[in-house]
Design a protein that fits this description.
The complex is a heterodimer of chains A (about 600) and B (about 375). With about 600 residues, chain A is an alpha+beta fold. Chain A has 19 helices and 25 strands. In chain A, about 35% of the residues lie in helices and about 25% in strands. In chain A, helix 7 packs antiparallel against helix 8, helix 10 packs parallel to helix 11 and helix 13 crosses helix 18. Chain A is elongated, with a radius of gyration of 31 Å. Chain B contains 6 helices and 25 strands. Chain B is elongated. The chains are: A alpha+beta (about 600), B alpha+beta (about 375). At the A-B interface, strand 22 and helix 16 of A face strand 25 of B. Strand 22 of chain A pairs antiparallel with strand 25 of chain B.
Chain lengths: ~600, ~375
């Protein structure tokens, strides 16, 4: 024992290296620490320069407040920070960094140069440190603000250096950090130079939309809706994608908590819940969301890199997120009334200049419905083929210039026919639409179900003779657990001993579906849904989704009139583009696209 | 084959068979009508593989044989031909030369070998019913059949020849229509079969008010023979549920209603509702019936009808279609409604051995 290792206090230099391991693991984290410092120094423009993927050099220059000579020297001491003073302050951290570790850590594992000048002083300070040892402190002339260069990262920690990846990989990570911060702070101007080549030059004072356009291009924006809602002190703002714009992974979800790129498990759950029933499983929306809440409601001191945060009231954050997203990606309710509803004028106008006329095309009564959002498939309503007989119904529609179709709240549409034994072909003012009537019908029924339920207007149709059904034990258990919920949703279901149940009434709008098929489908989803944290609405939605699916399955005949009604109902629904399970209801092909393909441009 | 046929006669024949000619089959020959010349008759057959319809017309046969020709085109050509006599001459490549007066058409056909063979029919039970009666029975019941594919046994009309009665039944589990007609049936002849809805619709189109109808049933098919028509259909191969248990016991109130008056009132009130799952409410009070509907996003409608009624006040809600269907499909001036309360089944009768059971709706 006596010859065992002796315990002794580590010198600061070693402590800093250890801390560096926590704070800095690759050039990207250097960028992050430096950029956060720059932002905390109230910079209005920040320049990031990367050389050799950041392995050779990361230089971050800002025009912030700068530091005096003494402050500069203090800043590279461990736990030296201007951002908090005592424990109490940790609860109210409003700045990005505060642990006071970053600069000391960086300086200990690189060749480090800090050049800084506060706006009020004439001379700046240049500090050169190598592997934690101060080599030189001298006066220098420089612009107001701070510039920090971190060169040869981990030159003195070979074990760490070995873990650095290829130049491209490190560069990609570093760029991602730049991107995230540039998004988080559109008010700040940003420049990114990679190996002396300018990659981004983002002017200050931008809005989030402008910043997204600068970084991702304008196409992304068309599928995004702006989000801004406050609930119980939690503000959620930003941009969220319409259900038809999805990605295979979460890489295009940018979440910021009080301006800091961060996340928490609850955020992921909330996003899933908000988009549940809108997008297919395994797909993810595109999001740029800023969650803002009082500083003492969120604990950012969970992890040194502050990637993950904890919320004091996670459920409030969840509710706020779900509500904000749903509110914005839902369509505005179709505006009733208004002078624009002069249908005949609309109709005539849209067919004023046919390029080719088919003279014996039957003129059929118009039907109209509220225009769908132009960002997505835009069906509309006009003529319906009521006859549905002659096979030689050719139609060549005018290629409408459609100056500002998005302005008109109503549109026309007609049913051209059916394709693939399922899809309905529709023609609208702006293009062709293929509609999956099953998916469309599911969407319409689903919203109807939830709306009737919310308004306590659910109609229940009694059955002539109660249908008895046996379920496998597992499903029976789930049904038993949810009996009162099911009854509240219009299922006249009761236990009948063992794993048997009787059903004597069903929600009427589900149509002629059999109780057996319906309950089997619903029970299956109760099981699959698992015990979803007792959120009643989520459970109701699961049930409604399953019921609508079963109902639609049971219906395999549609008249043209019913299709027209379906188009109208779909257009009036909140989320017309996808079925409750997230499959698309419509595929749109614009006349512009057709013209292009036919080389008529 | 080569023959001459009277224009009106052949048009009438084509008319009878062409309604089931496919409009969307992927099998080209199903768009065609099968013509067969045999012993002074031209046989016309069409099929969609589930239902087959065959008829024949007088013809002067010069050379026997058979072919298939596009049904709708041939019909429209024949209709416009300028002469009463049509000569059809088909060569061995199935090209038909059609001559009438100064007109000449050459139509490319498809070989008769490609046409699905006529089902070999070996009926072991046979019944004879008046066409007019059978048509009324189908008319009064067929609409209640289910369209829910998951319950194929309900996707048709049940013909039950049992216990000295022919009973025609249709139901979708929400309502049931049934007509029970006394009929002599020997014990060996007893049986129950489900006729697909499509076949029922075909029968309703062509059954007449005169003459008899012969029904023959085999293992899995049924044949209806009437006038010069033969309709052969597959049977729905399932067991029909026990429909008699659905018939309600005695109701507390019986109210006589003028059929058309009430139908029209219900139809008007239902105009308010834009989908068929919404309820209309009937309020029976002393000497009047109030029919009303409310849709929170549309508005409301109300209509009063004078009736003879002294019973207790009853308010009951129904799916408007379920209520209108029997009123629309029955004849006669009056129907009787039997009711007890807002939850019990409602029974509608007329002066025939007909009953319609309907379950009310309620609001959750």
């Amino acid at each position: 024992m006596s010859r065992g290792p002796k315990i002794h206090v580590l010198p600061d230099e070693v402590i800093n290296k250890i801390a560096a391991g926590e704070v800095v693991d690759r050039p990207a984290s250097v960028v992050k620490e430096l950029v956060e410092n720059a932002l905390d120094a109230r910079a209005t423009s920040i320049r990031v320069e990367l050389t050799g993927g950041g392995r050779q050099a990361v230089v971050v220059t800002d025009d912030g407040v700068g530091m005096s000579r003494d402050d500069a020297l203090l800043s590279v001491e461990r736990h030296a920070t201007s951002k908090i003073r005592d424990v109490h302050d940790i609860e109210h951290v409003a700045t990005l960094g505060f642990r006071g570790e970053a600069l000391a850590a960086l300086a200990s594992v690189s060749r480090f140069t800090l050049t800084t000048r506060p706006a009020g002083q004439e001379a700046g300070t240049e500090l050169t440190i190598s592997g934690g040892r101060i080599l030189e402190v001298r006066e220098t002339g420089c612009a107001p603000g701070t510039s920090i260069a971190v060169r040869n990262l981990f030159f003195n920690v070979p074990a760490r250096r070995k873990f650095l990846r290829s130049e491209q990989t490190e560069l990609a990570h570093a760029r991602q950090v730049f991107l995230v911060h540039a998004l988080a702070h559109p008010e700040t101007g940003w420049t990114l130079r990679v190996d002396d080549r300018e990659v981004y030059q983002l002017p200050p004072g931008a809005t989030l939309e402008e910043r997204v356009r600068q970084l991702f291009g304008g196409d992304v924006l068309t599928g995004l809706r702006s989000v801004d809602a406050v609930r119980e002190g939690v503000r959620v703002r930003g941009l969220a994608s319409l259900p038809q714009v999805t990605r295979a992974d979460r890489s295009e979800q940018y979440i910021f908590v009080n301006g800091r790129p961060a996340s928490a498990p609850v955020v992921g759950f909330a996003i899933n819940e908000a988009y549940q029933a809108l997008i297919p499983r395994g797909r993810h929306p595109v999001l740029f969301l800023f969650i803002e809440l009082p500083a003492d409601e969120v604990d950012v001191n969970v992890h040194p890199t502050k990637k993950e945060v904890r919320f004091r009231h996670a459920s409030r954050v969840r509710d706020a997120l779900v509500e904000a997203i749903r509110e914005s990606v839902a369509l505005p309710a179709a505006s009733e009334g208004g002078a624009d509803r002069n249908l005949s004028a609309l109709f005539v106008a849209s067919r004023a200049t046919p390029a080719l006329q088919v003279v014996d095309l039957p003129e059929l009564p118009a039907f109209s419905y509220p225009r769908l959002d132009p960002a997505a498939p835009v069906p509309s309503a006009e003529r319906g083929d009521a006859a549905g007989g002659s096979e030689s119904r050719v139609s060549v529609e005018p290629a409408t210039p459609a100056a500002t179709p998005a302005e008109k709240p109503w549109s026309w549409c007609r049913v051209l026919g059916q394709a693939g034994g399922l899809y309905v072909v529709l023609e609208t003012e702006d293009g062709l639409i293929l509609m999956d009537p099953h998916a469309a019908h599911e969407r319409v029924l689903f919203e109807r179900f939830m709306a009737d339920l919310a308004r306590h207007e659910l109609k229940v149709q009694g059955l002539l003779s109660p249908e008895a059904l046996d379920l496998p034990p597992e499903l029976a258990e789930r049904v038993r657990d949810n009996l009162s919920l099911l009854r509240g949703m219009g299922f006249g279901i009761a236990e009948f001993g063992g794993d048997s149940f009787v059903v004597d009434a069903l929600p009427s709008f589900l149509g002629p579906v059999s109780a057996r098929a319906l309950v089997a489908e619903v029970a299956g989803h109760l099981e699959r849904g698992g015990r979803r944290s007792g959120v009643e609405r989520a459970a109701e939605e699961q049930i409604a989704m399953a019921a609508c699916k079963a109902a639609v399955k049971a219906q395999d005949k549609l008249t043209v009139q019913e299709i027209e009604q379906l188009v109208r109902d779909l257009a009036a629904s909140e989320m017309p583009y996808t079925c409750p399970h997230g499959r698309p209801t419509l595929i749109y092909m614009g006349f512009d696209e057709l013209r292009r393909k036919f080389g008529r441009e | 084959m080569k023959l001459t046929v009277n224009k009106d006669a052949v048009l009438e024949g084509l008319q009878k068979v062409q309604s089931i000619v496919s409009t969307r089959s992927t099998l080209p020959v199903l768009y065609n009508v099968y013509l067969k010349a045999e012993k002074d008759r031209l046989w016309l057959t069409s099929t969609d593989l589930e239902v087959t319809v065959r008829t024949s017309v007088d013809a002067k046969i010069a050379r026997t044989g058979g072919t298939t020709l596009p049904a709708r085109r041939v019909f429209s050509i024949f209709k416009e031909l300028p002469a009463n006599e049509i000569e059809i001459d088909v060569d061995d490549k199935d090209t038909a030369s059609i001559r009438a007066g100064a007109s000449f058409f050459k139509i490319l056909g498809i070989s008769e070998d490609e046409f699905p063979p006529l089902p070999k029919f070996q009926g072991n039970r046979a019944y004879t019913v008046e066409q007019k009666l059978f048509k009324s029975m189908l008319q009064a019941t067929h609409y209640a059949a289910s369209t829910d594919e998951t319950r194929p046994m309900l996707n048709g009309v049940l013909l039950s020849f049992k216990g000295g009665k022919l009973c025609v039944v249709a139901t979708d589990g929400r309502r049931m229509a049934m007509w029970e007609q006394e009929m002599e049936i020997s014990r060996e002849q007893e049986g129950e079969w489900i006729i697909p809805t499509k076949t029922v619709n075909e029968l309703l189109k062509s059954l007449k008010d005169e003459g008899d109808l012969k029904i023959q049933v085999s293992e899995n098919q049924v044949a209806f023979e009437y006038d010069s028509l033969l309709v052969i259909s597959k049977l729905v191969d399932h067991t029909y549920p026990n429909f008699r248990q659905v018939l309600p016991g005695g109701a507390e109130e019986r109210i006589s209603l003028e059929r058309e008056l009430v139908l029209n009132a219900v139809r008007r009130v239902a105009l308010l509702l834009n989908d068929r799952s919404n309820a209309i409410t009937l309020h029976f009070a002393k000497d009047h019936l109030e029919i009303s509907a409310v849709a929170s996003d549309i508005g409301e409608a109300k209509e009063k009808v004078a009736i003879k009624y002294r019973g207790k006040d009853i308010t009951v809600a129904f799916n408007p279609d379920f209520l209108m269907d029997p009123l629309r499909n029955l004849d006669g001036d009056e129907v009787a409604v039997e009711l007890s309360d807002e939850l019990s089944p409602c029974l509608i009768r007329n002066d025939k051995p007909f009953q319609y059971v309907l379950m009310p709706m309620r609001v959750k």
